[in-house]
Amino acid sequence: MAGGTLFFPGLFALCSWALRRWRPEWTGTDRVMISTRLVSSVQAVLATGSGIVIIRSCNDVVAGS
């Protein structure tokens, strides 16, 4: 869990920095919007992957067995 505390803000900062370098004509609002959407997409993919692993490894997801 501590890794996510560093990973997602770091990904946001990296994306914002990269967009500032690659698209200097974009406004700060545009860069923040794209960075936020990218981080949200990565988080959604990782959450979906975690859910798939849990569902495949448990016989009864509700009871946890």
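Next protein, fold it too.
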Amino acid sequence: MGIPSELRDAWVNKRHSYTSMMAASPNEERIIHSNNSIREAVPEGFKAAAIYGVVAAVPTVIACRVIPWAKVNLNHTAQALIISTASIAGFFIATDQYILENARGNTIGKHGKSM
């Protein structure tokens, strides 16, 4: 079942012959560069965000467990929610900051503009 290999190969070769005759778009290089920079920025932003999330959570954990008012008036669920909120906020702030910093650097580098 399916397409015989000879027909498939002929179709692929015909398709490649059409693409070699087509003129390249002037924006194609910019699009490729943009996609590559996004692929680089997201994992680096995630790493930085994980670190910032932990850094934001540790002092919050200590504050919830050590401060007498928090120990008396906040049950474990409230303490966990406060800790999670601080950690998630640190995570998203760091990710956003890193990705925007990379995007700004790429824009400045591409267009030669200074801030």
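About the second fold: The longest helix spans residues 28-66.
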